[in-house]
Write a structure and sequence with these properties.
Helices cover 74% and strands 0% of the residues. The chain is mainly α and 385 residues long. It has one domain (3-142, 181-332). The relative contact order is 0.23.
């Protein structure tokens, strides 16, 4: 295994184990989960996701890499509010089942196209806008961390192209934090095993959580991974990858994990020419998966490390973790002229977090965009002109 292969595998795993983990912590706080429930969430998602991708990689000699869906975790950062732990688990299991059925029926492309991708991107951009805006007060609260993290996000990738911006923000941000913050002592280690949960399946959980999560995972993770494989001269078993991701996601859901799937950005990194010779790239994904599994096994301690960080630093890292995702989603959302105004409406409703009559924000946002796109022809005609 060459140096480039090792580096690609390590960087791929860090995408999930840094920003991805912080987003899960944020989502768990939004839902009001206990420490034991958060640890069960992290452990199940990372171990199931790591094992899934390791098995696929070794079986097909294709660089499958991933853990859970970072975009779905970002979505849950606001959408998880008001749901109990069993209700969240029920939504996670239903999301995995939806993906599994998409693979069994061979209708992956149709499932993704049920709702235009531009509206899904507009929804995602609107939901994470709150976290991106937190960069300003968080940076003012910790000026050295904010300054160094900004340099790591915007400048370091220009010098070292292999460093993802979010990873640069974390590395430089930690340096700034060491200058201006005195870390408290870590609490005594407390080993906590993941605990099974009896899922509660609700219609609200299906409509407001499971279906939007499935569409995000299908479009932002699995579709990206399959496209990157094909562009790098791999021939992935698409339907089998969906079935395996859905089954792993369901298994994680029974322990409170939000998802376990083939990752888009992680697979793209491991399958690219930068990860070494074509026949060795699967080794980068195997290394990435082993690191992800190890992180899941020690999630009980990783939570303690995250919790000793000041709240402003967590907000800062969350914002930078989502900034690239936000900018890409925003650009895609408004790239299609006929859907420009429906995307604006979807984005606005999501950004305002409109929630009424027991119906959550994603349903209102997507519903508003679809109505403008299809449901009211006269209004649609006015806007699209």
């Amino acid at each position: 295994m060459g140096a480039r292969t090792i580096t690609a595998g390590f960087l791929s795993a860090l995408l999930a184990c840094t920003g991805g983990a912080i987003l899960v912590v944020q989502a768990a706080e939004t839902a009001g989960l206990s420490k034991a429930e958060l640890i069960s969430w992290l452990t199940s998602a990372y171990i199931a996701g790591g094992l899934l991708n390791l098995c696929l990689t070794l079986k097909y000699k294709i660089p499958f890499a991933g853990a859970h869906s970072i975009t779905a975790a970002a979505f849950l950062g606001t959408a998880a509010a008001g749901y109990s732990y069993p209700q969240l688990a029920g939504a996670f299991v239903m999301s995995g089942l939806f993906i599994l059925l998409a693979g069994c029926t061979g209708v992956f492309s149709k499932a993704v196209k049920v709702i235009p991708g531009q509206l899904i991107d507009a929804l995602l951009a609107g939901l994470v806008l709150t976290y991106v805006l937190q960069l300003v007060p968080a940076g003012l609260s910790l000026p050295y961390s904010g300054l160094f993290a900004g340099a790591g996000f915007f400048l370091l990738p220009l010098l070292v192209k292999r460093i993802p911006p979010a990873l640069g923000a974390l590395l430089f941000g930690l340096f700034g934090l060491a200058i201006e913050y005195r870390f408290p002592a870590l609490p005594a280690p407390e080993f906590i095993l993941p605990m099974p949960v009896m899922p509660q399946f609700t219609m609200t959980g299906l409509l407001s959580l499971a279906i939007p999560m499935s569409l995000l995972i299908l479009s932002n993770d699995l579709a990206v991974a399959m496209t990157s494989f094909k562009s790098n001269r791999f021939d992935p078993p698409v339907d089998k990858s969906l079935i395996a991701s859905g089954a792993a996601g369901m298994a994680a859901g029974f322990f409170g994990g939000n998802a376990a799937n083939v990752g888009g950005l992680m697979s793209a990194l491991c399958s690219s020419p930068e990860s070494g010779p074509h026949q060795q790239r699967y080794l980068a994904a195997a290394l990435s998966s082993l690191i992800v599994i190890g992180f899941g096994a020690f999630a009980w301690r990783a939570v303690d490390i995250i919790n000793v960080m000041p709240a402003s630093f967590i907000q800062l890292m969350t914002g930078f973790s989502l900034l690239g995702l936000f900018l890409k989603a925003l650009g895609r959302a408004f790239s299609n002229k006929p859907l420009f105004f429906p995307s604006i409406l979807t984005f606005a409703v999501a950004a305002l977090h409109v929630s009424m009559f027991g119906i959550s924000t994603p349903i209102w946002a997507l519903g508003a965009g679809i109505v403008l796109m299809k449901g009211l022809p006269p209004i649609r005609q006015i806007f699209i002109k």
